[in-house]
Amino acid sequence: MGKDDKSKNFNLKVPKGTRDWTGEDAALRDRLFETVTTVFKRHGATTLDTPVFELKEILSGKYGEDSKLIYDLQDQGGELCSLRYDLTVPLARWLAMNPSVQSFKRYQIAKVYRRDQPAMTKGRMREFYQCDFDIAGAYDAMIPDAEVLKIVNDVFKALGWEAYTIKMNHRKILDGMFKAAGVKEDLIRPISSAVDKLDKLPWAEVKQEMQTKGLSAEIADQIGEWVQRKGGDDIIEFLKSDPVLSQNEDVKKGIQDMELLFAYLDAFDARSHVSFDLSLARGLDYYTGLIYEVVTEGSAPQIKGKQQEVGVGSVAAGGRYDNLVGMFSGKPIPCVGISFGIDRIISILKARGESTQRAKDVDAFVMAFGGKGFTGMLTERMQVAQELWASDIKTEFSYKLKPKLPQQFKQAESAGVPLAVILGEEELKAGKVKIKVMGITDESNPEKDGVLVDRKDMVAEIRKRLPAANGV
Amino acid sequence: MGKDDKSKNFNLKVPKGTRDWTGEDAALRDRLFETVTTVFKRHGATTLDTPVFELKEILSGKYGEDSKLIYDLQDQGGELCSLRYDLTVPLARWLAMNPSVQSFKRYQIAKVYRRDQPAMTKGRMREFYQCDFDIAGAYDAMIPDAEVLKIVNDVFKALGWEAYTIKMNHRKILDGMFKAAGVKEDLIRPISSAVDKLDKLPWAEVKQEMQTKGLSAEIADQIGEWVQRKGGDDIIEFLKSDPVLSQNEDVKKGIQDMELLFAYLDAFDARSHVSFDLSLARGLDYYTGLIYEVVTEGSAPQIKGKQQEVGVGSVAAGGRYDNLVGMFSGKPIPCVGISFGIDRIISILKARGESTQRAKDVDAFVMAFGGKGFTGMLTERMQVAQELWASDIKTEFSYKLKPKLPQQFKQAESAGVPLAVILGEEELKAGKVKIKVMGITDESNPEKDGVLVDRKDMVAEIRKRLPAANGV
Do B343 and B368 share a domain, yes or no? Predict the structure, then answer.
């Protein structure tokens, strides 16, 4: 212990792609957690918290080629475990383990782990928060799906965001389209993945990728003609009127779902930010129906047009996955959900200058002063502090035996404490304490130098001044 | 996807020593987090959140022989990392990495990882929550220490606990005692660890362990005579009057600290649960001054005497560790802190029958009914639900197109929803909805069958009935 020589050999840092959260960032994050939790609970959700690692076999075969990004624990004897990659597979595992639960509306806010190349400025980390809301259960078509999208609206409304787009599509429409164009079964997912890049790449490059993957130029062009459309009801009209697509059974089923969805979104007053975007494909294999992704101008609202969406990436995404639970239990439970990218949302809030939360939130600083022979009045400061704590007033005082008054003011100021409670020996003997709202510069303010109040009224007098002091 | 045969090979469980949190347990846990966070913030603390894994070298050499319990991540290329074992070492690492921070009052609530033998009934898990509060900084003696103990009082008071004991001791007194008795330097920690078992083992066995470790029977008896004392000011009097101990420099320094501490605890009105227990030693190497441990009767309040403390173990523990930050940076920052064992506290709350939190917390269930040709009124139910959500009323409705009224009542009842909002076609045409407080059995209650209100007054009428419905 305490061998200072040894310390010099230390590589003093956090692991690559991870970070500490403190100060204003942590305060901002907590506010965000509170906002989303309030919305989730308003819709009747309860929380599920799962272990940070799962048995390795639970995760395997769920993430396609991204499986290589999974963190494994070292084999130290016993079970083989991996850090969770998302919160969806743990939910499916839980549902499969609890067969008595046939329906579940749950939220989970927790960190997930991916051995990706970190890009901190873009908010891409190896350890990052996900914030998931899912509805599990066999229900009538598209009703829970509509509620999930309503929740997206509620969350961004609560955050005060105006400019965002919920891009949505349907896996059945997408797959039906590919089939109608003549894409062979085994090429559907690779071609789907090429189409998904249309928000980042020009059509010519996407077409090139399709051809490299084995598609003819004609088929690629046909797909290109279809998937570059986006809109609202007009997309449904287009799908219903196109002579080829309107005959495809998968597309037909998808259209039925989208018609229901739009009607339900209207009932929820949640249609305004929606864009039916036939190019949206989403990477994960497990989606089976509606898929969606939320994009925003993010930190560069001055840039107009397509570019604005590129730098930021999606801030929330999800969809319907009806078969995942069945992969574990053999008894499928249909699910639909959304995952909010907390770290990205925070990056954007910060870039917008919204990180103005006070990291520290103390109401009162108890201080003392005196002339020659000043004892420091530590006991008295402690007694007053404990009275304030007992009245639920957030309070600090100097941990020095004999602090100087300017020192104490400086400490209170640098912590942004709005009220000073100042003890003097004479005043205390007379049963009085001085209360001072910090930072009054107006000379005409009668309380500029503080106001002397009866000790017995101290708590009430502090409460009276707290809203003003906190700028409320 | 969806290959049901495959699912039969799955070992459907969570890793050994881990668990899922949901339902009432999760609600109880959240209440507990809220309680401790409120107390911590009242004392001016801010949060620090660190990565779940640290570089392996950060953790090594900090936990003595318990280092074998550390989980390592597999070497997948890149850095070698380990899951955090506690929240103290990450705090010290953070302080060392941020040399501009010379003082810090922080809390952290997070899971830690130990490859221990799980004992679930005792609340000993491999993944479990710790809830830490620490004060870092060079201050006048014992002032932050006293505030940490005040916080212990505040937390258990907020939980409504009466019967608990804060056992405390001082490493300097303990070590001075061992030296005064003639224990050699290299035997001090092993003998200290034997003494620490006095709360679990009878004196004869502890003495036996001491002798096995190389102590003479005389020295062991001398130590036994000293360390089996506990009390308050009388222990200080004993230490000051004992001819041998009162001459030992370490003991003298410890007495000075304890005298200050008791005076400060009096100022904080926080003395009542304190027991100065000369047998308390604590396992961890890094403590340098005051140490403490909180014990309670726990789940077996009917058992009197020593036995009651054995089964439960401590529910909170901590102490002063002045050299840990210096191990990383070479520049020590003195620290004192406490760690609350959330899982154990929850085990006790549950055993006391306090797990009566509603896991689900919904205010209103919107339902509809109709006669022949009933459409289900899904759009109308959605519209009403969205009005209630917009007014921050927690609301659910059936995800069925045409649910039967008894089904809807059953769903509301089983979720413990206190209010039903019932839509009928005729009523809605007349601009009315029915509000019904669930579970009224009193025939004379005029609202037994619900009350018809104007649609425009719906939100106000619901709000009026919510406190009663929630049993407030």
Answer: no
The first and second tokens of residue A212, run together, are: 């490299």
CATH number of domain containing A384: 3.40.50.800
Per residue in B302-337, pLDDT (tens digit) is 333 444 433 557 899 999 999 999 999 889 999 999
Do A47 and B22 count as a contact with CB atoms less than 8 A apart? yes
Residues in contact with B457: Cβ distance below 8 Å, sequence separation at least 6, in sequence order:
none
Closest CB to B72 among A11, A74, A127: A74
Residue to mutate among A56, A151, A331, A399, with most B CBs inside 10 A, is A399
Residues A289 and A391 in one domain: no
Same domain for B163 and B245 = yes
pLDDT at A358 over 50: yes
Question: Does residue B470 lie in a domain region?
Answer: no
Residue B1 in domain: no
Domain count, chain A: 2
> Which are the contacts of B166, defined by CB distance < 8 A and separation ≥ 6?
B149, B152, B153, B273, B274, B275, B292, B293, B294
pLDDT at A286 (0 to 100): 85
B107 known member of a binding site: no
Q: Does B329 touch chain A (CB under 8 A)?
A: yes
Contact of A137 with A95, CB cutoff 8 Å: no
Reply yes or no on whether the pLDDT at A2 is more than 50. no
Q: At residue B200, does pLDDT exceed 90?
A: no
CA angle B295, B296, B302 (to 5 degrees): 145
Query: Are both A328 and A455 inside the same structural domain?
Result: no
**Residue A86 annotated as binding site:** yes
Shortest distance between the Cα of B468 and any Cα of chain A, in A, equals 19
Q: Give the pLDDT of residue A122.
A: 63
Residue of B nearest to A400 (CA): B140
Indicate the SS3 state at residue A311. Answer: coil
Phi-psi region of A373 (alpha: psi -120 to 50; beta: other; left: phi over 0): left
ipTM above 0.90? no
Domain-located, residue B235: yes
Q: Does B20 touch chain A (CB under 8 A)?
A: yes
Same domain, B64 and B129: yes
Same domain, B268 and B382: no
Range of the domain at B124: 23-352
How is residue A430 written in tokens?
Answer: 């007379």
The answer on A417 and A283 residing in a single domain is: no
- The HSE-up count of residue B394 (CA atoms within 13 Å, CB side) is 20
B264 part of contact set with chain A, CB < 8 Å: yes
**Would you say B87 is a known binding-site residue?**
yes
Whether B86 has a binding-site annotation, put simply, is yes
B437 in Cβ contact with B465 (< 8 Å): yes
